[in-house]
Amino acid sequence: MNTFNLTTEFMGKRYRVDIEHPHSIAIALDFDGKQPNHFGAEPAKRQPLQGGDFIGDTTKGGSCNADSIQLVPHCNGTHTESIHHISDQKVSVGSLLNNSLSFACVISIEPKLAEESSDTYRPALEDADRVIDKAQLQDAIDSSTLDSIESLVVRCMPNHDVKKSYCYDETNQPPFFTQEAMQFLADSPIKHLLVDFPSVDRMYDQGHLTNHHIYWDLEADSHQLTDSARCDRTITEMIFVSDAIDDGIYCLNLQVPAFELDAAPSRPVLYPLIECSETHSEQEQ
């Protein structure tokens, strides 16, 4: 039987990409069951397409199944967004991933109370806010690794399955990054940031979206692109990283449909890297 082998080199070592054991870190969107939800959006819905004598439901006499769906990508599950999320100018998310494979580092961090951190945010932090600060990122990933990857996957601890159907609202607010933490990431080579909470910004932030602006290098509260804007970057939110996935380096395939929108539902897939026993010179012989 023919097999497809993919090898790569990372930080001077040769690895085999284990394409036979992928890990999807997207939350499966169940249109008929429990769903995650953010900001009080309507749940994602589906209904059979109907027109004339046709109905897209074989259980109701239709010749095939064809659903019409309704959802808000930012609020109804795993999604990837472009800088157009905060800019007037159109930069479609579907146009950004011509090279959908990248080295990704998975890190696990337990958010801390804002009162335990010296970092800041705009608007001002409240003591009970749960944040990921710069010091935690620096502890979780060394500088040489950060300089060698394009994607960072952040898993918050504790990590419970309830994240797959959690409803975030005023009484159940998710964690977010401090300004200093986001500036740390913005100053790195990271192009694709993936997190298991619904927004890199505070849920109720007076509309500033401070961290989005920092990451994409837009002036505070501005919606206008500049020459320095990082239009090549994406943010993926509301992922779920199973406990079966260890922290470390993976090959990431970030799958996004060709939507001409600021955001779209997405399916990030992690492939383990297995270090090759032979040296690079031996492989070339």
Automatic annotation (TrEMBL):
Pfam families: Cyclase. This is Cyclase family protein. It comes from Kangiella koreensis (strain DSM 16069 / JCM 12317 / KCTC 12182 / SW-125). The lineage of its organism: Bacteria, Pseudomonadati, Pseudomonadota, Gammaproteobacteria, Kangiellales. One of its GO terms (biological process) is L-tryptophan catabolic process to kynurenine. It comes from the Bacteria. InterPro entries: KFase/CYL (IPR007325), KFase_sf (IPR037175). GO terms for molecular function: arylformamidase activity. Signal peptide: none annotated.
